[in-house]
Design a protein that fits this description.
With about 80 residues, this protein is α+β, with helices and mostly antiparallel strands. The chain is about 50% helix and about 25% strand. The protein has a single domain, classed as 2-Layer Sandwich (GMP Synthetase, Chain A, domain 3). The protein has helices at about 1-25, 55-70; strands at about 30-40, 40-50, 75-80. A three-stranded mixed beta sheet has the order 1-2-3.
């Protein structure tokens, strides 16, 4: 039960952190959706302009991952789930 509570706490932290990044993505016509957190990996879906942007890998690696890793050290990766 404690492990499930920890996962829930991490998911809440992930969502809060994504909310702080959302305005930057929105300025470019994009957005990010939380999909899942499993085995220390965060799964997100880039939407809007970010979905087809040639810089989406940079957004994932240098924006989302670096920020999430700073806030939540347990995170080992961020994967963009395409439709």
């Amino acid at each position: 039960m404690a492990m499930e509570n920890k996962k829930t706490d991490i998911i809440d932290q992930i969502k809060e952190t994504l909310d702080t990044l959302r305005p930057y993505l929105n300025m470019e016509g994009g957005d990010v959706e939380f999909v899942d957190y499993k085995d220390k990996i965060v799964y997100v879906r880039l939407t809007g302009a970010c979905q087809a942007c040639m810089f989406s890998d940079d957004t994932i690696k240098n924006g989302l991952y670096e920020t999430l890793k700073t806030e939540i050290p347990e995170i080992e990766g961020v994967i963009n789930v395409t439709v």
